[in-house]
Design brief:
Elements (H helix, E strand, L loop, with lengths): L8 E3 L13 H12 L6 H12 L1 H26 L2 E3 L12 E8 L18 H14 L6 E7 L4 E8 L2 H9 L10 H17 L6 E8 L3 H4 L12 H10 L3 E6 L7 E9 L10 E10 L9 E7 L2 E8 L6 E8 L5 E9 L9 E8 L3 E7 L6 H7 L9 E7 L13 E5 L6 H12 L3 E5 L6 H8 L21 E2 L7 E2 L14 E11 L1 E2 L24 E8 L8 E6 L4 E8 L2 E6 L25 H13 L1 H4 L9 E4 L8 E4 L5 E3 L1 E3 L4 E4 L6 E7 L13 E4 L20 E5 L15 E2 L1 H23 L4
Parallel strand pairs: 3-4, 3-6, 6-7, 7-34, 15-16, 15-17, 17-18, 18-26
Antiparallel strand pairs: 1-2, 2-35, 4-5, 8-9, 9-12, 10-11, 10-13, 13-14, 19-20, 21-23, 22-24, 24-25, 25-26, 27-31, 28-29, 28-32, 30-31, 32-33
Helix pairs in contact: 3-14, 4-5, 6-8, 9-12
């Protein structure tokens, strides 16, 4: 590793230094002029010589002063042309001064990249940064003071109060560990400013202050400091300006010159709720970052379940730079399963694996609520045509009067069929259920009171009602109680302004010979019908339905199906972590048009009804599984399915245990310190049972996808006040373009111009005889 000198001086164009000899020209001209003059006797000259002798000393001083200025002008111009530079970590003015040096070490995920591909010891960029920082400390003078902090999210101070103990500073630097998260430049600059303020208020004596960053200069971390047009400076630029007003700032680039990285940036279950009765598709996105992709034509990717590799495939990243790989897997055991997709082999191994916690159930539990007799019959039959108890989908049918006393959290989806109206309490429970990740489907009918639906479930027609917001946890995962009868309890979520009912229900209208428009099969519910016209979707007759419209507040609403006249027939919407689908017509033959005595629609008896209902279940029940897993730094938690009387604990990825905070008012637990990527499971007297080696609760926390992009920021985009230099070169890789010591040629040129003006003025002043 190249040794960093705190006092270094050099020239970018040393060949120009030969022109320094030109500085002798004014002196030689002066001496030559003294030798070639001739004496000519003249009577009047005697009087002049007498006057000159009286001012000889002053004239001699003026001549030498002008000669020195002219010689210095030539020296400065030649030196400026040779482009002298000072090391970015110090300068000539710093020699012998007491310096308070704040050492900031980037410990984000990208710093875990292997520094040298040929280094079998596994040295990382963070190791290089720590070694370089130690050299900076060792080469400082004995009077220098040190503060040390870590650039992460959030950043932290390792040595907050300045110390002159270089050994203590070196030990603190050596103890810095890598993180699995991102770096927060804004918070880091705030911390640096606080450290400088604390040093001043603490009485620390220093002649100068300096902030030294050690980082790989990825665009992700430093983009916020990139040069912007005047007047658009953001918070980060303001914080940086505040720091540089008090201290000199520099960054030591410890990254590789042309980094390349392969990462798994996303993994999800894309085929509904996983059960023991059917296979699921697990999709992962693999991305390559960097310019050199020739070696990525065949990248092996593995599916890992509970620590064992169960499948593998090969993807090509050489052209597009990214690829999606799907695994078809059938789980053999119920409970929470640890699923991961892993790409094999690159210099940054920390992001090669992306994890997913999957709750495998014996079956999918669906609740059907009917507003009149047989209103849910056809829906229930479509979900479980055989009625078998061991079928993949188990249906429980209740009346609307039983809805208030039924625990919705034990079901994966709820179908509401021709329910006349809902109380405020029922609407609140449905809202809580959906926002936490549940799925609800409405089939309207002849008993539905449109005004009550609009007022209680959605936004009122006049737009006066708004949904109440609830605290939200950044997680799509569900909580399962201990024991065989495990109840899925979804996490707390926030609906903000999104209404539970994504439509405003208008009047019911009748029209013969209406058909269904699938809208080019763009929606996930209708996509399986593409190319299958025999399924009967296009020929399904619709005779009566509610005219509905999508209100402005329903920003996530989409039309799934429309009538042949263009009226919305089915509308879906994402609400919190869950989904809602509203069918504007009936889901049974029990709803009858009083004018004609015929059913609203014969769709429940049509061949298309079974696949429509099943795809609707897949869509609403799979909402939480299709959400990305939490990333490092995001909280996890859920509502409690029991009254917790004993402390709960989280088992972290490193097998350590920490107590969990419980919100008694909301009957929920929250865990904030997800600073490691991996699996987190819940333990405690009320939640420590294991079913088939499955924990009571499991959450997968992954690395931030943005940290996988190791693209370097262009040095030209960084502020001029931030001096950049390189700590060490890659083997066989030129790095001159990465070095930017502090140049002083501009100052030399400005000084030369100033002396030219001074010489002109002095010559004029002396020539007038006024000096």
């Amino acid at each position: 590793m190249t040794v960093l000198h705190l006092l270094a001086f050099g020239f970018a164009n040393a060949a120009i230094l030969g022109w320094l000899a030109a500085a002798a020209a004014p002196i030689l001209i002066h001496l030559w002029m003294k030798r070639v003059h001739r004496e000519t006797p003249w009577a009047a000259v005697r009087f002049l010589q007498a006057a000159i002798k009286r001012h000889a000393r002053r004239l001699r001083l003026q001549e030498w002063l002008l000669l020195a200025i002219r010689t210095t002008i030539i020296l400065l111009v030649v030196l400026a042309a040779s482009q002298p530079v000072l090391d970015s970590l110090g300068g000539l003015l710093g020699a012998g001064t007491r310096t308070h040096r704040v050492v900031v070490i980037d410990a984000s995920l990208s710093m875990r990249m292997q520094a040298d591909a040929s280094d079998a010891s596994g040295g990382t960029l963070l190791s290089r940064a720590k070694q370089t920082a130690t050299e900076i400390v060792d080469q400082s003078s004995s009077s220098d003071q040190f503060s040390v902090c870590v650039m992460a999210d959030p950043p932290r101070a390792v040595i907050a109060q300045p110390t002159v103990d270089s050994q203590a500073a070196s030990r603190a630097i050596a103890g810095i560990e890598p993180t699995d998260g991102a770096s927060n430049l804004e918070a880091t600059l705030t911390l640096v400013d606080q450290l400088l303020t604390a040093a001043e208020q603490g009485g620390a004596t220093a002649d100068r202050r300096e902030v030294v960053f050690l980082s790989d200069l990825t665009q992700t971390a430093w983009q916020a400091l990139a040069t912007q047009t005047e007047g658009q400076a953001g918070i980060v630029q303001q914080l940086f300006a505040k720091v540089t007003d008090r201290a000199a700032a520099s960054v030591v680039d410890v990254g590789v010159a042309k980094p390349q990285n392969v990462a798994v940036t996303d993994v999800r279950v894309v085929s509904g709720t996983p059960t023991l009765r059917q296979s699921v598709f697990i999709a992962a996105r693999v991305q390559a970052f960097g310019e050199q992709r020739q070696a990525l034509a065949e990248t092996p990717v593995e599916l890992v379940v509970d620590g064992l590799a169960v499948d593998s495939k090969t993807v090509s990243l050489a052209d597009a730079g990214s690829a999606t790989v799907e695994f078809d897997h059938r789980f053999r055991r119920p409970g929470w399963r640890r699923v991961a997709v892993r790409a094999l082999g690159d210099r940054l191994a920390a992001d090669d694996t992306r994890r997913l916690a999957v709750e495998v159930k014996p079956h999918v539990a669906v609740l059907c609520v009917e507003g009149r007799r047989n209103a849910a019959r056809y829906v229930a039959d479509a979900l479980n045509p055989t009625g078998e108890r061991n079928a993949a989908v188990q249906v429980q049918t209740i009346t609307d009067a039983e809805l208030a006393a039924t625990d919705l959290q034990s079901f994966d989806a709820v179908f509401l069929c021709n329910v006349a109206e809902f109380t405020s309490r029922e609407a609140s429970r449905l809202d809580q259920y959906v926002t936490g990740g549940g799925g609800v489907a409405f089939f309207l009918g002849d008993r539905v009171r449109a005004d009550r639906y609009n007022a209680v479930l959605g936004q009122a027609i006049d737009g006066s009602q708004q949904a109440a917001a609830k605290p939200r946890l950044q997680t799509p995962f569900r909580f399962a109680n201990a024991g065989q009868n495990r109840l899925p309890i979804r996490p707390i979520a926030e609906r903000t302004e999104q209404p539970l009912l994504p439509v405003v229900v208008g009047d019911a209208v009748s029209q013969t010979n209406y058909g269904i428009d699938p809208l080019d099969y763009q929606h996930p519910i209708t996509a399986p019908f593409r190319g299958r016209q025999r399924a009967g979707l296009l020929t399904t007759p619709i005779e009566r339905f509610f005219r509905v419209r999508i209100p402005p507040a329903a920003t996530t609403a989409e039309v799934v199906l429309a009538t042949s006249a263009g009226d919305p027939l089915a509308v879906s919407s994402a609400v919190g972590s869950g989904r809602v689908v509203v069918f504007a017509t009936a889901g049974s033959l029990a709803s009858v048009d009083p004018a004609t005595g015929r059913p609203w629609t014969v769709m429940p008896a049509w061949p298309s009804f079974v696949p429509i209902v099943r795809e609707t279940l897949r869509y609403v029940a799979g909402a939480s599984l299709e959400l990305p897993a939490p990333i490092v730094g995001q909280a996890i938690g859920s509502r409690l399915p029991f009254s917790a009387t004993t402390p709960l604990a989280i088992i972290r990825p490193d097998d350590s245990r920490e107590q969990v905070a419980i919100d008694a008012e909301q009957a929920a637990w929250v865990y904030q310190r997800t600073d490691q990527a991996g699996f987190y499971s819940l333990a405690g007297e009320d939640a420590n049972a294991v079913v088939d080696d499955s924990p009571a609760y499991l959450a997968a926390v992954n690395t931030p996808p943005a940290e996988s992009d190791v693209t370097r920021i262009a040095e030209s985009k960084l502020p001029a006040e931030l001096a950049v230099r390189r700590a060490a070169a890659e083997p066989n890789t030129p790095d001159a373009d990465l070095v930017r010591p502090v140049g002083i040629h501009r100052g030399l040129l400005l000084s030369a111009i100033g002396l030219v003006l001074l010489e002109t003025w002095l010559a004029y002043w002396f020539g007038r005889g006024k000096a």
